[in-house]
Amino acid sequence: MSLAKAAQRYVENLEHELQRVKGSLRRQGFSYSSEERILSKYVAQLLPQDHSRTVVDIGAGNGVRWSNTYSLFQKGWKGVGIEADGEKFSRLMRAYRNLPQAHACHYTANPVTSFPS
Q1: Whole-angstrom distance, CA of residue 105 vs CA of residue 3
Q2: Residue 78 belongs to what domain range?
Q3: Does 114 map to a domain?
């Protein structure tokens, strides 16, 4: 790997970690426009405490920035993030590496085709 590529990967990793930290400090969390807070409200109202907690994030991006599911995974929810873009998918895998219940899937979600088995 060239020095330039190694430096670029290092900067991307730093940027990703910075997004994660910034998201945890932001009032609305990781989501773009307080969706995370809204979801928490509805989950608390509608989902019984003893019910399983599973989430699917289609178009998960890098898994952190503008994510409505990252905080759920941090709270122990299980599920999958689906991302078609190769670069975003590699960042998604890094975002989920310390979240044992979160799985990254490199796939193009399409309602017409079936999911691979």
Answers
A1: 29
A2: 3-106
A3: no
Q: How many angstroms separate the Cα of 48 from the Cα of each of 35, 44, 51, 53? A: 20, 8, 5, 10
97-113: per-residue pLDDT in tens? 999 999 999 999 877 76
Structure tokens at 55: 């989430």
CA R_g for the chain: 15
Q: What are phi and psi of 42, to 5 degrees?
A: -70, -40
Regions in the chain scoring below 70 on pLDDT: 1, 10, 13-14, 16-33, 113-117
Q: What is the pTM of this model?
A: 0.67
The domain total for the chain is 1
Q: Which residue has the tokens 């890098």?
A: 62
